[in-house]
Every structure is written in C-alpha cells, then in structure tokens.
Amino acid sequence: MQITTQRLSMCQITEQDWPLFLRLHTESRVIEKCFDQPSDDDIRVKFESRLPNWSVTSGAWLCLVITDVETNTAVGITGFDYDGRSAEVGYLLLPEYFGLGYATESLLGVIAWAMRVHLISVFQGIVTEGNVVSEKVLAKCGFKLDEVIPQAYSIGGVLYADWIYKLNTSSQA
Question: In this structure, what is the dihedral angle of CA atoms 102, 99, 32, 25, given to the nearest 10 degrees?
Fold first, then answer.
C-alpha cells in the first residue's frame, strides 16, 4: 500500500525503519508533549506490533513511514488504529521537519485514503493538554474539540488533560 500527496509518500513500516521508529520515540523534542520516554524494549514491542501486513480488520495500528518525495528522506510516521467504528489518528515527525506542514499534509492524505478505500468516516485525535501544535494540525484537517478529560495522562509526573478531537466526514455533505 502506498499513499501519496503533493510532497509526500507513505508506505507501511518495515524492519528497516527501526532506527527511525526508535529515534521518534526517544527524541525529547518529539515526545515531550506526547509521552514519557519508554524503555527500548517497550519501543521494540510497539514497533514489532506494527510490522505485520495491515488490514482494516486486523485490530492493529496502521503505521506508515512518511517520506519526502523530493529528497527521498523519511521525515516521520503517521497512521491510525481502527476499531470498526472510528479511526484514532496519530503522527510523529522528526524535529528537523517541524513547521513544514508535513503533519497536516500526511494526515489529510491518510484520512482521504481511509475514506476512499475503507469507507471510514469517523476519526479521532487525542492531544495532551498544551500540545498546541498538534491541536492546530487537527484543526487544519477539520477536527473539532469534542471532549476534555481532566488529569487523564501523566508526563514527567505531571497530570495533563486529554483533549479529544473528532472528525465525522459523513456529516459533511
């Protein structure tokens, strides 16, 4: 499977993408507003859970490597977890590619593909309180704040609210 946008190509993660996945889960500028740094063993388990060929009924995360088509450079990962009702989206970009619109472009591409190929119409993004950049990405993609769960998530021993954003494309006729 391959999803393409104007500047990006996205393909399912492979064993060769381990260094990228590891860096995305250990680089402080990437994870500081997302989660505490997991152990290398936990990252490896997460990585391996994303390697099998994905299908809409697999119950696993679809994890796609985002590649800049002009430079053929991997810039991050994106994807979603589909539970049969809605798809929870997620993305992580390397810090040297922050602010270039790649998160928005890749997310729009993934959503369009999921709608066209799998007829998925309901999407959700969960953002940790204070992650203003991710909130802006979701807003640019049409998501609206739906729910705030106070003190839902701990990062560095501090409790933060989860901000749940939703996008229902079936109601956008």
Answer: 30
- Strands of the sheet containing 8-12, edge to edge, are 2-4, 8-12, 61-68, 73-82, 87-93, 122-128, 158-168, 144-155
Q: Count the residues in the chain.
A: 173
Summarised one tens digit per residue, pLDDT across range 111-165 is 999 999 999 999 999 999 888 899 999 999 999 999 999 988 777 888 888 999 9
Residue pair 24/97 in contact by the 8 Å Cβ criterion:
no
DSSP label at 84?
S
Beta bridge partners of 65: 11, 77
Provide the pLDDT for residue 78: 96
Number of Cβ within 10 Å of residue 114's Cβ equals: 22
Is 173 a residue whose pLDDT tops 50? no
End-to-end CA distance of the chain: 28
* Residue 171: predicted pLDDT: 61
From residue 51, how far is each of 11, 30, 91 by CA, in Å? Answer: 12, 22, 16
Distance CA(42)–CA(30), nearest Å, equals 17
Tokens standing for residue 115: 């709608």
Phi, psi angles (nearest 5°) of residue 97: -115, 10
